[in-house]
Write a structure and sequence with these properties.
Elements lengths: L8 E3 L8 H7 L10 H17 L4 E6 L2 H12 L5 E6 L2 H12 L3 E6 L8 H9 L6 E7 L11 H10 L5 E5 L18 E5 L10 E6 L1 H8 L10 H5 L14 H17 L1 H23 L5 E2 L11 E5 L4 H12 L2 E5 L14 E5 L6 H18 L7 H9 L3
Length: about 400
């Protein structure tokens, strides 16, 4: 039987599904980079980026992936030899900490494992113990893309304030921005980073750093910052090329303009509500499957789960067989279990992830779940019955 017809569905947690409008916006000849329409369009991006981040602060654009945004943020406020505190809740928390170490920072790591959110009380204790004020920033993932845990950034700010500590609060919103509710200013986040390939619905290649005046003051006291990573000329360019530290990423900018138009048209509150509805449908299906089989959501509590990505454990040998079957027979690609190794499964193949971020609607969610249901049946993997009905009931609540 041939299953080659139709369109494949890349249901991984980024790169996310790109809207046709975004793809069409990119399909054009290269523009004049020295004057004219490209310059005028670029100026319009900054207010809309700040709208998505919920900030009145500063927004900068880098030609990079999320790792580049990590480095850009750190480079502007952390000097070699200074310390940061990382409450890690998955692989990407450790990754940002490793980035800080690579820049010469000393990292104090509090590892909360891979199945629970950070505890602000423990962060407060660590800051109270820092009598000399060595820690310059608390860096944390809002959503860790590997574990799918959703962390309480407002609670983290409250912990910093309760300790009376001057540390900056820096948030990795690469998986969450434009999907999970994030309120940069209201939650007291000083620096936030994200990238183009998830909630912003643009191909990988753009990183974004948002910062407030408090973080700008810290940058002003830095002895030196790499010319490329320095956010000062990017946030306040005197000439156009300073937005990007060189040649503009022209076609990514066309894509970003179209994606931000789509976000404005739908409204960020409506986007958050849509992601909430889709996530609840996925959770309902997965919880139902788990009642009669080995499938388990990595994060047990709903309130602690991301609305953009869901990490699941099904164990060996089911994980690799499931991913292979849906890709070959349903045109569906699931995310691998990144950083989720365990004893007897060092590569984490018994885990997989579902990306439900960005340009996704109800029929795509039901198609994703239907493909997994078909795989369960074809591979005779035990599971509870009624998962699709449970998901449909959640989606019906519009």
């Amino acid at each position: 039987m041939s299953d080659a017809g139709g369109r494949a569905y890349l249901a991984i947690p980024g790169p996310s599904v790109m809207p046709e409008r975004v793809l069409r916006a990119m399909h054009r000849s290269a523009p004049n980079i020295y004057e004219g329409a490209l310059h005028e369009m670029t100026h319009t991006l900054i207010p809309d980026l700040k709208y998505v981040a919920r900030t009145e602060g500063h927004a900068t654009i880098y030609i990079s992936n999320g790792h580049g945004a990590w480095e850009a943020a750190l480079a502007n406020v952390i000097a070699p030899g200074e310390s940061v505190l990382m409450p890690a809740t998955g692989r990407f928390g450790h990754g940002w900490a490793e980035m800080a170490e690579g820049l010469g920072a000393e990292v104090e790591l509090i590892d909360f494992g891979r199945a629970a959110p950070l505890d602000p009380n423990r962060v407060e204790e660590a800051l109270r113990a820092d009598k000399e004020g060595r820690i310059k920033a608390v860096i944390a993932t809002h959503v860790d893309t590997s574990s799918s845990v959703l962390n309480d950034m407002a609670g983290l700010r409250a912990a910093i304030d309760a300790a009376g500590h001057p540390a900056l609060l820096m948030a990795d919103c690469i998986a969450s921005m434009g999907c999970d509710r994030f309120e940069m200013d209201a939650w007291g986040v000083d620096v936030a980073v994200t990238a183009s390939q998830k909630g912003l619905m643009v191909p990988p290649g753009l990183g974004f750093v948002f910062f407030n005046d408090r973080a700008a003051e810290v940058r002003g006291r830095m002895e030196r910052v790499s010319r490329y990573w320095d956010w000062v000329p990017r946030a306040n360019p005197e000439i156009y090329y300073q937005y990007f530290g060189g040649t503009a990423p022209t076609h990514h900018l066309f894509a970003l303009r179209e994606a931000l138009d789509m976000i404005r048209e739908e409204g960020i509150e409506a986007i958050w509500a849509r992601h909430e509805r889709h996530a609840r449908a996925i959770w309902a299906a997965c919880e139902t499957w788990g009642e009669g089989g080995p499938l388990r959501l990595n994060i047990p509590e709903r309130a602690q789960r991301s609305r953009a990505v869901t990490s699941l454990r099904i164990g060996l040998p089911h994980g690799p067989r499931l991913r292979k079957w849906v890709e070959e027979h349903a045109g569906l690609t699931l995310g691998i279990g990144l950083g989720m190794s365990e004893e007897g499964d060092e590569r984490g193949q018994g885990f997989f992830r579902l990306g439900h971020m960005g340009h996704v609607n109800a029929q795509m969610i039901m198609g994703l779940l239907g493909g997994i249901e078909a795989a369960f049946q074809a591979l005779e993997i035990p599971r509870g019955r009624g998962a699709l009905e449970a998901a449909a009931a959640e989606l019906a609540q519009v």
